[in-house]
Task: structure prediction
Amino acid sequence: MKAIEITALVLAIILFIAWCYYRIRLIKAKREGMRLQIQIKQKEAQNAENNSKSSKS
Result:
């Protein structure tokens, strides 16, 4: 193999690994965002329930 071909192959591998890393991070960030949204909705529902109980007293 020529040096240029080896360099191109190494760069292609590095780019592929970087792309995979980016995709994994993106998926993890989406999951974390969804988890946080669920927590916020649960907390809002709990606060609404608590407010309705306190207003009845």
Q: What stands out?
A: The radius of gyration is 25 Å.
